[in-house]
Amino acid sequence: MQRKVMISCAVTGSADTPRKNPAVPVTPQQIAQSSVDAAKAGAAIVHIHVRDPLTTRPSMDGTLYREVVDRIRSSGVDVLINLTTGPGARFAPGMDDPLKPSPATTLKSPAQRVEHVLALLPDICSLDMGSMNMGGHVFVNSPAYLEAMAIAIRDADVLPELEVFEAGHLLLAKRMIETGHIKAPGMFQICLGIAWGQPATPEAMAYMRSLLPMGSPWFAFGISLHQFPMAAQAVLLGGHVRVGLEDNIYLAKGELAPSNAALVEKAVRIIELLGDTVATPAEARELLGR
Question: HSE of 142 in the Cβ direction (CA atoms, 13 Å)?
Fold first, then answer.
């Protein structure tokens, strides 16, 4: 039966991608405009990080978040805003003394990681549901930190997007739904292909889906060359789709994506070729209870 499929566009992320593809937005104006363009192309949700405009590196500056959100909200384009809470969780131990973090460490308190969310009250914010090795560092999200963040997000009436990179993350999210830290049924984002988490395969996605709570809306994505195969797989398995320059800078093999909008347009074609239709922001709000 034909159904409405939501598209979320992750517009910039935190990786060192601007030097690899100049289409990756960096300044608040660029991030906001790229979000608006993605919405016009068919995205119901835009997932937002911010970057230092001078260095292009990831930032947690609340004034940058405010400028992006204000620009999107004043654009006249309807789209659900999803702000990340991922920055502030990186740990890299010192080589000589592991008790002393190396300069690559970015650890922040739960209050610092949700400060911009409480100030700006987006529709959605991400909540990374566990710790893992990620590239060359450790991504640290302890249960106590997650509980503190989840309570603040819940009490602000913001919908947490529960990002799960492996099965244990999903099981912890289910427990936090059971304990009331997260409102049932939860909204999940299945993240595939990130080193060293769940691989981007149909079998991995199907297994993660099998662990979801009954009635939970869920999205999925694969990084890099896996973006569009995993988008199609998510549609086939009854989920929703995430694309965007955060996860993949190519439109096709050897062809850099010219914009987030171009990635969204390709996702739209996949959804429609598989017989479903793309959800509008208004329909997404209904599906997500926003």
Answer: 8
Query: 182 phi and psi, to 5 degrees?
Result: -125, 135
DSSP letters, 161-225, are EEEESSHHHHHHHHHHHHTTSS-TT-EEEEEES-TTSS-SSHHHHHHHHHTSPTT--EEEEE-GG
- Evaluate if pTM is beyond 0.90: yes
Q: Which residues pair with 124 in a beta bridge?
A: 82, 159
CATH level 3 topology of 4-288: TIM Barrel (3.20.20)
Digit-coded pLDDT (tens) for 72-125:
999 999 999 999 999 988 888 888 898 888 888 889 999 999 999 999 999 999
- Pairing label, strands 255-256, 250-252: antiparallel
**Cβ atoms < 10 Å from Cβ of 283:** 15
Find out whether 28 and 67 touch, Cβ atoms under 8 Å. yes
Residue 59: φ, ψ to 5°: -135, 155
Residue spans per domain, the chain: 4-288
